[in-house]
Amino acid sequence: MAFVNMKSKEVQAKIVYYGPGRGGKTTNLEYIYSKFRERIKSDMVSIKTHGDRTLFFDFLPFDIGKIMGYDVKVQLYTVPGQVKYDATRRLVLKGVDGMVFVADSQVSQRKKNILSLKNLQENLATYKKSIFKIPLVLQYNKRDLKDVPLLPVQQMDKDMNSQLKVPSFEGSALTGHNVVPTLKKIISQTMASLQNVLK
Amino acid sequence: MDYDDDGISFSEYTIEGEQIDMLDNILDEYVAESCANSAMLIDMAGNIIAQQDNGACEHDLYSLAALASANFAAVDTMAKLVGESEFSLLFHKGESESIHFSKVNSEFLLITIFGKDVTLGLLRLKVADALTKINAIWE
Amino acid sequence: MGSNYDDDVTFTEYSLGPDQLQKIETILQDDLIDSGVNSVMLIDLAGNIIAQKDNGSSEHDLYSLAALASANFAAVDTMAKIVGEEEFSLLFHKGENESIHFSKVHDEFLLISIFSKKVALGLLRLKVSESIDKITAIWKR
């Protein structure tokens, strides 16, 4: 539910980073925040536990400049990934325009990725949105890990993207590898879906 | 399951340019009359629809809007969990500034930040006026 | 590095023995449930339920309530910081039949009380404040 202000020619769009707990959603936003510090006027807001786990969401408003004559503000959110926070996770999806699913490449996390993606589909459905229609980009995170076995990318594609067929990136939120391309992709997909509104 | 056709759900509400003008005017008047520091109309997803302040308010309003909508949604969900249709108005009192929440309709919230010099009674009166005017725009 | 990512590890800054938990449950029962409160729980700021008591006829989804309550508390706390406040006053939400009262215990815990109209807010506040004093005393030992 992007908000288009016809008067001030401003668009606010909501992009949510989803995925299993400790998958790197917050780390994605932290990297973006450090990389584009000069374009982000406010502080990143993180509602987290003492144990540094996301409790409600992280929030990062991001001015991406003018698109089709509109000043576009993208609001980046993360959800809490832990299974027990489903009620709060669902709240963050309200009015979402685009999604990044951050999957964990570790072999040990395979099942959690699949369950989290299924949970996303269910939670979108509560807002009458389809995972097959909402702008969505997958990120296979933690490709930088060396001392633990990682899932082959083909396997992750098969697990998560065989039906969705959305853009996917191998990434490392920690080193920043493909964090910005993931963001750019979801912004362009989200803007494309808003195009008929912006005319 | 009834999905949106185009993947974006812009249809939940629309606001024309002239309606934004009207909202700005209402908020401007409301801030002046209530002596509040800042007032903003936000949607349930945390977008700022209209905003006015007394010129001396320097808070990070985008973050506040995101937090306020989340706060409202969490309280609303808790109400549902205990079997209530909704809880009464939200209000957070601070040492020097307080925040007041009002539900305008199913889509919008009016968030007011005000100082100690404003009484809650007066504010509620002015909020009620502003809500009536805002709702009249859509009628 | 790999172990940092493990979802199964729960980070806790506190530990409670069975004796302490028993004492807390007794306090919740004697001071709050026996005063007419429908349901009460002590949760940590991550939304985990530490102790819980109810009058037997309360059937709410307490795990969701605990998660929402902790998240909401943190959201309100963050708003307070943004407008330059140390913290906002105690949270209380009034409903038609049941209301929820939130109280901070230490810096680590929240006491959530769900009560109906037959319990006056004044009495509830008194009982909550007494319970918090007693619960706090358990930690000091």
Structure description:
The complex is a heterotrimer of chains A (199), B (139) and C (141). With 199 residues, chain A is an alpha/beta fold. Helices cover 32% and strands 28% of the residues of chain A. In chain A, strands 1, 2, 3, 4, 5, 6, 7 and 8 form an eight-stranded mixed β-sheet that branches. The two termini of chain A are 16 Å apart. Chain B contains three helices and five strands. The N terminus of chain B is likely disordered. The longest helix of chain B is centred in the middle third of the chain and has 21 residues. Chain B has one domain: Dynein light chain 2a, cytoplasmic (Beta-Lactamase, 2-Layer Sandwich), CATH 3.30.450. In chain B, α1 runs antiparallel to α3. Helices cover 42% and strands 22% of the residues of chain B. A five-stranded antiparallel β-sheet of chain B has the order 2-1-5-4-3, sandwiched between helices. Helices cover 40% and strands 21% of the residues of chain C. Chain C is built from three helices and five strands; from the N terminus they run αββαβββα. The relative contact order of chain C is 0.17. The chains are: A alpha/beta (199), B alpha+beta (139), C alpha+beta (141). Chains in contact: A-B, A-C, B-C. Chains A and B meet through β1, β4, β5, α2 and α5 of A and α1 and α2 of B.
